[in-house]
Amino acid sequence: MARKLLVLGEVREGSLRNVTFEAVAAAKTAANGGEVVGVLFGESVSALGAEFVQYGADRVVTVENEKLKQYTSDGYAQALLAVIDQESPEGIIFGHTALGKDLAPRIAAKLQSGLISDVTGLEEEGENLVFTRPIYSGKAFEKKIVIDGLIFATIRPNNIAPLEKDEAKTGDVSSLSVDIKDLRQIIKEVVRKATEGVDLSEAKVIVAGGRGVKSEEGFEPLKELSDVLGGAIGASRGACDADYCDYSLQIGQTGKVVTPDLYIACGISGAIQHLAGMSNSKVIVAINKDPEANIFKVADYGIVGDLFEVLPMLTAEFKQLLVNA
Amino acid sequence: MNIYVLMKRTFDTEEKITISGGKINEDGAEFIINPYDEYAIEEAIQVRDANGGEVTVVSVGTEESEKQLRTALAMGADKAVLINTEDDVENGDQFTTSKILAEFLKDKDADLIIGGNVAIDGGSGQVAPRVAELLDIPYITTITKLDIDGTNATIVRDVEGDSEVIEASLPLLVTAQQGLNEPRYPSLPGIMKAKKKPLDELELDDLDLDEDDVEAKTKTIEIYLPPKKEAGKVLEGELGDQVKELVSLLHNEAKVV
């Protein structure tokens, strides 16, 4: 059955986020031959429409308004409901990001619909569109279907491969004018704390530190490795509790759940709490002094050794590899 | 100030997960207050202590959730309400739970509603924002700081590591992110007092709802465990050689760099 799907795109520092391209790929599967319409909100976002199309959207609808410059639930909800009203889609795909997690439940509630959150895969099986998502912090998975109402889903970054970019593909980029009013929350200030550039949930490579890094300065060799690999820094609860780093870096049951291509755990013992946040990473490397550490049980590759000795060597080796590549 | 906390009893995911009869096996497992809801309860108590008022903790669940509600009372909440859906709801989803909570809350004149930002079992994070929408009040999710001054709230919201400072006014719903506070343990006098605090039990009938009103919009068709991961390769030899081998494995075998 062909369906018409919307994808709410996300812009970060002037560019479309990678999760948006992944959401387009998910929407293509859900549309099953139907139309996929990209949706973009902001002050001036039409120029990004072309790339949205090159990654698979058939066309793009934008709502440009200075009140949409920053995400607020009230502003985005008004804009999205106006687009839904114009387009009458059968479903909407969001990223399972701060924005998608905040907005999607509200729109689903407003439209008396279900919402399947944190999706890591989807496929058409017979009459049903079947979504896969992790539950119990990734220790189990469930398959879900929508039985009534619109199809709403948020997709977890880094799990659904984007379509190949087709530079030749063109599609209509139209704008819809929406009168945004009565914002009930006012953002006074945004404090950027996250590691520059690479967002933890979307990072392809994460170098994470635990109690074994011993101090705030102890994260330096991790940062050097992460910079070489274009990755992001993460941490275990132990490192956060000990004040070696900010809680925004915490990966685990309370904290962020990540699924990078490569996860390098440095001085992390591998408490279940931490494993819940990273065990679905594609490749896990453990570096720990303690050969009995639990982290070696989930790691694909392990080095038993002092991270302060191993990391500089590893950084140098990767530098050499990437220079030669 | 009239404060409500949305609480869920959850499976402690530090437990080993097994499946029997197509469902997660709960026999003998530990159940806890969802950790993010603990932050919510703590924050509610602190806001009440600073501003006066009353904290009511509400949970949609079964009789078994009473234990976690008593714990919330022992922490310092004033009242608890269990909306027992055991007889009425077999396969609910987030639509179901939020509809029930919103029906309960709609005539309560809550100034502040606090929930956890996500439950660690189902992990959807939908219920609280849905409830806010159904009640037509503003909401702010994943907060790490809350200051209330009269009817104004100044909030710090965690946005994937960045922080937004947001102003909003009451009534308001917020969801707790880690870092909001340090939840207290129930004290012994707290536990004694909790036994005498009111814990009301309601069913759908009491909210003028019937099963059809809250029928789920989504359905779980299968639950399964991820494939068991083989133990990895711990490298051996001189450290320098191990490092070279690791880089080569990541580049040539795993192909992630």
From TrEMBL, chain A:
The keyword Flavoprotein is annotated on this UniProt entry: yes
Gene3D superfamilies: HUPs, TPP-binding domain
InterPro entries, per the entry: DHS-like_NAD/FAD-binding_dom, ETF_a/b_N, ETF_a/FixB, ETF_alpha_N, ETF_asu_C, ETF_asu_C_CS, Rossmann-like_a/b/a_fold
Superkingdom of source: Bacteria
Record keywords, A-Z: Electron transport, FAD, Flavoprotein, Transport
SUPFAM superfamilies assigned to the protein according to its UniProt record, in alphabetical order: Adenine nucleotide alpha hydrolases-like, DHS-like NAD/FAD-binding domain
Domain Electron transfer flavoprotein alpha/beta-subunit N-terminal: 5-190
The family this protein is said to belong to: Belongs to the ETF alpha-subunit/FixB family.
The protein, known as: Electron transfer flavoprotein alpha subunit
Organism name: Cytobacillus purgationiresistens
TrEMBL record, chain B:
Domain Electron transfer flavoprotein alpha/beta-subunit N-terminal: start-end pairs: 21-211
Protein family: Belongs to the ETF beta-subunit/FixA family.
PANTHER family according to UniProt: ELECTRON TRANSFER FLAVOPROTEIN BETA-SUBUNIT (PTHR21294), ELECTRON TRANSFER FLAVOPROTEIN SUBUNIT BETA (PTHR21294:SF8)
Keywords attached to this entry: Electron transport, Transport
Taxonomy, superkingdom: Bacteria
Subunit and interaction comment: Heterodimer of an alpha and a beta subunit.
Function in brief: The electron transfer flavoprotein serves as a specific electron acceptor for other dehydrogenases. It transfers the electrons to the main respiratory chain via ETF-ubiquinone oxidoreductase (ETF dehydrogenase).
Organism: Cytobacillus purgationiresistens
Listed name of the protein: Electron transfer flavoprotein subunit beta
SMART domains in the record: ETF
Cofactor field: AMP
